[in-house]
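TICKET: design request
STATUS: open
ATTACHED STRUCTURE:
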């Protein structure tokens, strides 16, 4: 079980959410529209941080090599184009690393789920007809 995130980590996550809004009023309005208060937002962020920690622990992905990053960049140049211009590799390096890591983690999770499905009978209640 992943550890509880610190109060500071939760507050940093909340600040990142607030920063997405141009004004405090826009932020408060969004909370009102969603029927969510600050306390509920903090609980959701806490849960999100715990899930991220679990995924990081359970599905550890090795850092990609420079060759792997370069290959991904070449294979996905369209993803690294801004305003009709290709973003240089060095400027896109962090984004490339994130994309490669996410892709690998997704593959690990998919393999894990396939393994679970092979070992168990799963009934999807949403797909079952009456």
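STATUS: resolved
RESOLUTION: sequence designed for all positions
ATTACHED SEQUENCE:
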């Amino acid at each position: 079980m992943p550890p509880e995130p610190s109060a500071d980590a939760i507050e940093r996550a909340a600040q990142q959410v607030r920063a997405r809004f141009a004004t405090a009023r826009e932020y408060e309005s969004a909370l009102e529209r969603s029927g969510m208060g600050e306390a509920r937002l903090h609980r959701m962020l806490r849960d999100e941080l715990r899930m991220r920690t679990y995924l990081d622990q359970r599905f550890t992905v090795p850092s990609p090599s420079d060759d792997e990053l370069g290959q991904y960049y070449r294979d996905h140049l369209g993803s690294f184009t801004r305003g009709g211009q290709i973003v240089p590799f060095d400027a896109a390096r962090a984004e490339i690393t994130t994309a490669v890591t996410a892709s690998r983690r997704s593959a690990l999770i998919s393999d894990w789920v396939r393994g679970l499905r092979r070992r168990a009978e799963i009934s999807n209640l949403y797909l079952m007809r009456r």
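CLOSING REMARK: DSSP finds five helices and two strands in the chain. The radius of gyration is 20 Å.
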